[in-house]
Fold:
Amino acid sequence: MKKLKILAAADIHGDSSISRKLANKAKKEKVDLVLLCGDLTMFDKESKNIIKPFIDKKLKLLLIPGNHDSFATADFLAEFYGVKNIHGYSVQYKGVGIFGCGGGDIGLNKITEKQLTETLEKAHKGIKNLKKKIMVTHIHSKGTLAEFLGFSGSKSVRKAIEKFKPDLVLSGHIHEAEGIEEKIGKTKIINVGRKGKILEI
Structure:
């Protein structure tokens, strides 16, 4: 089976010039899918033209909210542009299951550890029988390199990684950790950041 090629990015924070660069990159690299891992806006402001560049390039797009986006804004953007918000949901492309949970430990979209666990459990159910899986969160996992500034990661994200054993976990949130890659067991963990990361699975 042909691999799924994706462009994953996070922490755009309302900067439409970043969206345009990412959309151009995704088109040039002929990706199958774009994944936006939260913090699309800056406290719900500057949401204009964040998603539009991807639509203009006819790219398939999935998103989750970050801690700077309200759940309502993420839902609105998804509905308005005809894309999918996978907070608490899953999708399947080319035999790869993708499930997600947005929000963070601070900000507009504060989510508790209990809510994180419940949301990831719910999201995973739809793709639990697939061999290849990608987990998309905004907040980073506990016990990872993204904690180097002292911002503790999520215990619930860590437990979900250990329980569901996804092939990939994509997140953002800690801007200074952009590009850091590591492993928990056989799961590859990547802070994709605003520059974006091209991946194949």
About this structure: Residues 5-200 form a domain with the Purple Acid Phosphatase; chain A, domain 2 fold (CATH 3.60.21.10). The chain has one domain: 5-200.
